Amino acid sequence: MKTALWLYLFLFLAFFDLHAQYPVLTPFAISLGAGPAFIGWMMGMYSLTHLPGNLLAGVLVDRNGSRRYIVFSLVTAGVLLLLQAHAQFPWHLLLLRAASGFALAFLSPACMTLLASLSSDSATQGKYMSGHGIVHTLASVISPAAGAFIVAKAGFSGTFSSLGWLLILTGFMAFFSVPKHVQTRAANPLVHTEGDLEAAQLTGASLSSDSTNSAKPSRRYYLLPFFVSCSQGVLFFELPLSQNGGRDILSTGLLLSLLSLGALVTLSMFFLHRLTPSGRIAAALLGMAICFFGLAAFGNIPPGLLLFLMGAAKGVLFPAMASLFISLGGPGRLGRTFSMQSIAMSLGAFAGPVAAGQLRGIVSPYFIAFLLLMTALLLLPPKSTKLEPSYKAGLNGRVA
């Protein structure tokens, strides 16, 4: 638990630093002379360069542990932010954001693997993932408005410099506080949890003792984080531009804080983890899609309300996805599993803003996000109606 608390502290500081940039990047790019299409490529390039980092992280984290990669990501990203404070041309910002994307690609798989490794019990792992989501959301509630406030007081250069030093300091704290390796107890191969059943239902995989640890997630299922991340990329691209052409930084920061506040509300509802992951995922996708449709079609609905409801849906969605990927990964494959999930999300985060930047003059980007989420809902792998005999035996033994 001590390791989890330290990790939550570092994650809070890191997420605060990263989310504080969201309302700042678009106005900063505009001040350098960038147009909407270039801004879309800039945001997408950050996610595209996640891919090689995600591919490396999946193998390296399982082999060497998480600490060194957490420290590397934080310190390197901080140095790049210090350089970003002195960018003078749009292509400077593009290159620095691309480098930051590679550096930070190691952070999420390393943190998620370390948290999941703290326990072999799926219920406890779910609580750790909920804690991760709460910390993430707390940081993202405060940071957008804080970033807008810092820009108003210190300007773009001062903002990026202060955020860069914060990341570097957090990296050094992680070096001395995060353990090199965390050993977990092997789970009973004959006892399966509700998450295991749900994973088997979604992928059609057997829950026999020989196949539990070697089963791989259905490739079709990785479409879920891809479409979700794509829609989020559209939101982070379009929301600043819709606020007075990207010049109203404070309004953007407050709206993003409302988005995170809605997520915090549902993340705090721990009883939701008693529901099956697929049910939570389906309900959350539908709720987010409706909110995007409201942003695209109904200008008389306050955007703050829709973003709050969208955040509430996100608070349901992401812990459910994490629980499923934990059960699908199995011992010894958590790094690879979270790496593949991060790759899918990186591809989506690249495609979303790029498509929105190119099609913004033709159709509302919010409507594109609505179509993406509805597609994800339709492609969600169906439940299997038959239970494996090994699961029934394990469940009976668990009840007994």
Automatic annotation (TrEMBL):
Location within or outside the cell: Cell membrane
A cellular component annotation (GO) from this entry: plasma membrane
Main subcellular location: membrane
Membrane topology field: Multi-pass membrane protein
Any one GO molecular-function label of the UniProt entry: transmembrane transporter activity
Transmembrane annotation, as ranges: 69-87, 93-116, 128-152, 158-178, 221-237, 249-272, 281-299, 305-326, 338-356, 362-380
Keywords (A to Z) from UniProt: Cell membrane, Membrane, Transmembrane, Transmembrane helix, Transport
Domain Major facilitator superfamily (MFS) profile, residue spans: 3-386
Coiled coil: none
Pfam families noted in UniProt: MFS_1 (PF07690)
UniProt keyword Transport present: yes
Protein name: MFS transporter
Species this protein is from: Paenibacillus agri
